[in-house]
Amino acid sequence: MVKIADIREPSTSVNILAKIVSLREAKSSRNGSESIYHYGILGDETGTIQFTAWSFPSSVREGDIVELRNCSARIYNDRIRITVGSGSEVVLMPEGKMEVKRTYEERAIKDLKTSDPYVTVTGVITGVSSRETEIKGEKVTLYSGFIDDGTARVRISSFGVPLKEGLRASLRGARVTEFNGRLSLTVGRQTEILEASEPEIQMSRNHLIWEVTSPVGNVSFSGIPVFVGERSGIVTKCSECGRFTDAEGCRDHPDAEKVMDLSCYFTLEDGTGSMSCYLEGDTLKEFLGFSGDLNSADPVEIHQLVVKSLECIPVRVTGDLSIRNESMRMRVHSIGKITDMEISQELLEGD
Amino acid sequence: MEFSKREPSRWIFSRELRDSTQTEGSETDERMRPYIVTPLGTRLKRIFFCGTITTSSIEENSSRLVIADPVGSFYVSASSAGFNEPVRDEMSKFNTGDRIAVMGKVSIFKAETGNFLFTINPERIWSADDALRNFWNARTLIIARRRVLAIKEAQKLEKPSEMMLIRLGYSPEEAHFALLAVNRYKDYDYSRFIESATTSVRKDQSDEINRAKKSILEIIDRHSDDQKGVSYETILGDAAAEGIDKKIIDDSLNALGNDGEVYEVSLKRFKRVS
Ligand SMILES: [Zn+2]
Description:
Chain A is mainly beta.
């Protein structure tokens, strides 16, 4: 028998005694045929580990203690997991009792992944709002807000547990989910919210593109816009819904007024990857140094101004990431040229 | 908004490309350009770099540029055939001594010695100022340093795996590239690579200050015909006309002050120490 905390490397013959902390069922279609499999979390006195079972006794429930024989430990999505295969044995221990040590690894927000769903995150809670909602016929207050740890920011939803504006807190056992192409954290019954002290090290939100693989918010990249979109420049938008319109006007609001705005999109490269960025409105106007009237401006000139101000100019962008059509993009909320000071700083940091 | 899904460019110094001996994929099929795997494990088809033109030969059928970065040279070549034409016209606008940034795909040739030779077929060319050059130098050096750190970490492990490197804090791609390097290049001298790149990048930046210092002294000599010295605005104006950045002018003036070559006679008026 091996303890969960000692499972660190792939292995083909793992025997453990564990409690079923959580158990879920899912369908998979492999080779055209559908099959049911189970997944969840196993725990013992030393920690917890995720598992996937291709065959699993239907009598086993959450909270049961089981002996698992001949399982394998495999790496999946950068994490080690237990796989219960056809050659494995699952034996229910009806009299068993076990205190499970819940271990949630502390993660930087920029490193959160849905494939590693239960974590501890420490940061400052902001933008808290609440509303009443109903879950399974029961009235619950849903609190939402953001948490920012200096590396990035994500939305938090908390069912029932109040969030305190401005509090520096550790969310122990929060669940990482993805909604609308953006990452968020859910505070549930098992999540503890603990007041946290100030961090010893200042975290940086300036990342290299290759380091950020999840759609988190409030991150910065410095790089070079290499392609500026053809339709960057003056755009018209529906005054009702804010979406781009063509000459015909908005499809949903044909009677709504059309408003002119500045908008641009570009591909930023930083030597480690590329990021599709878009920005508009005052942020863009300020960056371009444009203060004229859009109604009387020449669209071609404005397009050229956007290209000239961005293309191959080192810039730092800060914004929120989201996933659309399987690719990541950034809605930029601030942009500025990179100064020589920042470049020397970067060189020093590399020492 | 349409974003094209294209392979991002890798930022590497010329020496990393020159020292490459490994490829991945077909070397013969023209349409299927193979990936180059560099000693630092960078797997690339497209690169982006910044440097100064040292040789330029613009001809009707094919144009060539040799572009120096801090540690060597890139060879850029465009033929009049096909998609390359607009960029070839672009190439002809630049002269020897100009600083440019190039994005392009890398072509591989096998020399008689068996070594690979690389040329870059440009897709885009831009004129590059100090800010761009400094940023590219700094960032490219940092990426190289991080790659080498990951490689050295992998070399320490008995059976290195991507996951082990990821646990040590490297990004998935860094971990992948580090293993490529470890598996493909056994005896590469990484310390020497980083040392030479670091020294060259620093020298590049200090060369710039030294050139600017010389220019500023000349400007002061040119204008200084009385006791009042030369105004900061005059220095700024003349130096800017020579294409020197304001930041570099300020740094150089400070450096000249510290060197005891120049002093401030009155507020923002400078004179040579004679
Ligand atoms: Zn509308």
